[in-house]
Design brief:
Blueprint lengths: L3 E2 L2 H6 L6 E2 L26 H14 L14 H4 L5 H10 L1
Parallel strand pairs: 1-2
Length: about 100
């Protein structure tokens, strides 16, 4: 369990919570950080050709044709996202 120096209000009041050290007692050990090496992903990034192939396969599996939606602006729907109470009630009654 790592031990940290007292900080904040505990340090101001001179209170040492359990597991704290004085400023001079802290020591750095590279052994503490050796386990972090396993978290680094050194594998190569997916190449653009591979990425394009995967996207094409997903579109084919889902029968999605991106050409069908090339004229659609993704921000068009955002312009009409505001509604007042009356419009919401009208929409709810349709359901």
């Amino acid at each position: 369990m790592p031990v940290y120096p007292a900080r904040g209000i505990a340090a101001q009041l001179g209170i040492k919570p359990p597991g704290t050290l004085d400023e001079g007692d802290y020591s750095y050990s590279e052994d503490d950080y050796e386990s972090d090496d396993s978290f680094i992903d050194d594998s190569e990034a997916v190449e653009s050709k591979e990425y394009a192939r995967v996207i094409r396969d997903v579109h084919k599996a889902l029968r999605f044709d991106p050409r069908k939606y090339k004229e659609v602006n993704p921000f068009d729907d955002l312009r009409s996202m505001e509604a007042n109470y009356r419009e919401i009630e009208k929409e709810e009654k349709r359901r």
